[in-house]
Structure formats: structure tokens, C-alpha cells
């Protein structure tokens, strides 16, 4: 049997350091050894921010189809919440196996894709409802001094600044449950929370890394929305 492997890491840092890669590679090696399989090609995906495209997955699916190989996915767990990933996998009609979910089939993948789409829709609707409720209470969202430097440099306008504030507020609300989970897990300092967010591959609204100050800014936005 011939196989094509697909490994996913959540950040550029993990991709460079090998964090997460070793365990996934070990799972694939164990599967190949147990099935006397020949590894035709390997693909590693670095999932960045909110990107829904998966170029390495597409390449892996194409290679598997061309060579008649089985696609071996090291980890399906977190990707089971990504509708784009699941739909690509379902529609490719390529034989596959997930090392961390041996019961995954094209049928269950289709069901997971529908659930992921509904979850994404529900998150969007909750975010919009929360922002509307804040505005109805007369809460002024955003930092009034945040765009002062841009305005002085004549590099922005009121519409773009307003959109930046809106995006920051939406991102803060999306992260509310994550920050609450961190605190409930005993991760209470801003520094520790920033480190854990980076470890999980969660990006800031600008797509960067977290620092204690950026975590504090998110919490301030959440506190303001509750006034």
C-alpha cells in the first residue's frame, strides 16, 4: 500500500521549531510500519490565523489521487471544526485515514463539516448580537486615542479607523470564552495568558503574537462592553 502523509501545525513558530511535528510524524510512521506501507510524499501545513485555504492539503490530495495512494492525516481533532478543510477532504473522494480518529469516514466527515459551518455561523451571529447590545446601551466601543497617530500622519480616515475598532471589538468578543477558560484553568497572569494564546496558535486581530499588553487591551474591551 502507498500512502501520502499530511501534518498540520498551528503556527510558524511550531513549524520552525518542530513542536507538534514529532508526535504527528511518529503516529504516521507507526501507521506505515503496521501496514507495511510505502510513503510516497509528505506535506506539512502551517495554519495561519483565520485562513480557510489549505494549499498543502490540496497538494496532498492531488498527489494521493495521482498515485492511487491513501492519504494519512496525523491529526483530525482541531481541524474537525474547520468547514473548509472538511469539505475539501470530503469532495476529493480520496481514500484516507486519520491516525487520531480511526472511525472517521466520508460520511462522518460530511456531518462534521455541516456542524463546523453551523458553529461558524452561530459565532458570527453571537458576535453581532453582542455588539448591537453594546451600542443599544450607548457604550462607545474602541479606544478613542487608538487612531490619533494615524490621523496625525494623514494615513487613515474615519471609515477605516471605525472598521479597525469594529474588528478589534469583534475579536475581543470571540476571545471571551478562551480567556475565561484560561482563567478557570489557573492561567491568570497577563504574561501566562499571552504565552498560552501563542502556544495555541491563536493570533491577535492584526495577525501577530500576543504580549501582556495586547491581552490587557482585549480584556478592557470586554469590560467596556459589559458596562
Helices, strands, pairings?
Blueprint: E1 2-9, H1 12-17, H2 21-34, E2 38-46, H3 55-67, E3 70-73, H4 83-92, E4 96-98, H5 106-136, H6 148-152, H7 158-174, H8 176-184, H9 190-199, H10 212-225
Describe this structure in words.
This protein is an alpha/beta fold and about 230 residues long. The protein is built from ten helices and four strands. It has a four-stranded parallel beta sheet, with helices on both faces. The longest helix is centred in the middle third of the chain and has 31 residues, at about 105-135. The radius of gyration is 21 Å and the shape is elongated. Mean pLDDT is about 75; it is low at about 10-20.
Helix content: 55-70%
Order of helices and strands: EHHEHEHEHHHHHH
Structural class, by secondary structure, is: alpha/beta
Which radius of gyration do the C-alpha atoms yield?
21 Å
Identify low-pLDDT runs.
12-19
Shape: elongated
Main sheet: strands, sense, barrel: 4 strands, parallel
Mean pLDDT: 75
Strand content: 5-15%
CA distance, first residue to last residue: 61 Å
Question: What is the gist of this entry?
Answer:
With 227 residues, the chain is α/β, with parallel strands linked by helices. It has ten helices and four strands.
Structural descriptors:
10 helices, four-stranded parallel sheet, 57% helix, alpha/beta, 227 residues
